[in-house]
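RESIDUES AND SHAPES:
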Amino acid sequence: VQLLESGGGEVQTGGTLNLSCVGSGVNFGTSGNAVVAWFREIPGKGTTAVACIDTTAGTTFYQDSVKGRATFSYDDAANTVRLQIGDVNPDDTSVYYCGVGPAPETLVNGCPKLPFIDYNYWGQGTQVTVST
């Protein structure tokens, strides 16, 4: 099983970040692997979920830091989840990881928060640097 992340690199402030997470050996859109989340490392605070999608219900959650700037898309045929974040700023600089796990009852209260308990598989991470 692999989660392959792409889309990292250097982005200028005000630009758009396009992240992709492709599942290999794991099928998104199934009950056991319905939620795909993007986490990022926050210095001094650990790893935090910034956004997640329930690929079976079509629901999403965006953390306040990206709300209004981020949009998910899910390609069932390609087993790919894409997260686009617009109007990026230096605070978006981080290593971004995608994880997949079972869906909770609802995403209204946020993404599942515990990386090693709530998620089955993780990618290796992709570095994003927002330059001024």
Q: What stands out?
A: Residues 86 and 118 are 28 Å apart (CA to CA). The first strand starts at residue 2 and ends at 6. DSSP finds one helix and eleven strands in the chain. The radius of gyration is 14 Å.
